[in-house]
Amino acid sequence: xFFERLTKLFRRPPEYITVAVxxxxxxxxxxxxxxxxxxxRHVAIxxxxxxxxxxxxxxxxxxxxxxxxxxxRDIIRASDDWGIEALSLYAFSTENWARSKxxxxxxxxxxxxxxxxxxxxxxxxxVRITIxxxxxxxxxxxxxxxxxxxxxxRDNTGLxxxxxxxxxxxxxxxxxxxxxxxxxxxGALDPEDIDEDLFAQQLYTADSPDVDLLIRTSGEQRLxxxxxxxxxYAEFVFDTVNWPDFDRARYMKCLQVYADRDRRFGGVKSDxxxxx
Length: 276
Known about the structure:
By secondary structure, the protein is an alpha/beta fold. It has a single domain (36-260), classed as Undecaprenyl pyrophosphate synthetase. It contains eight helices and eight strands, in the order H-E-E-E-H-H-E-H-E-H-E-H-H-E-E-H. The chain has helices at 2-9, 50-55, 61-82, 101-124, 140-153, 169-185, 196-200, 248-260; strands at 17-19, 32-34, 42-46, 86-93, 128-132, 160-167, 213-216, 235-238. A six-stranded parallel β-sheet has the order 5-6-4-3-7-8, sandwiched between helices. The protein has a two-stranded antiparallel sheet with strand order 1-2. The radius of gyration is 20 Å and the shape is globular. The termini are far apart.
């Protein structure tokens, strides 16, 4: 086990990442390849469209969420295989508690099932799990499961898998401000020392780089209170496919779109045109 883990720690990234496009998904593009240097370090995904996918098939919304778990599993594996540094997934927002008891119950049950069935593989692949959101506000069984997963993978050094559960972006910013205010009140911090870097260290994603690419499925085009600070300079890609149908081929298309973008972070192009 030690030598297997050591091999993973020092494995070299592939010279190119490739994926064959499945004809079943009707993606009319040839196989694609990207050098790791053009990959985003941090990808965030709003996994939208489970309910619409299910309703289009005469199934319950809960069945759609179960189908979405299968897509989730492969996208995590692809991110790890391709050398993505951090992957943040919007799994359950603070607003989702307003959904029906049946749907919320199904989502909570899926959460338990996911960590029970996947934690061994994730740990073996050196993935580090971080939960973004109010863990204390989760039901007891789910709270214990996610805390156990974080503790078990705490020292892993591979893919940083951030799962947003009971998460709200505004609540995260409010929490960060409150943490800094408490340090000021205790005399441990001078207000004049507060800057963007210090503020970012109070966020759930303190150990991850800012988001480079945000993907949202199902055709919706909004952040929905997801990582507002971390996505300030992210590239957005909105895919029309519902989440259960989002596969490696679609993922690669999004990565290709990102690679083709001109990211200047407020700089100026060679022809003198300034970025808005």
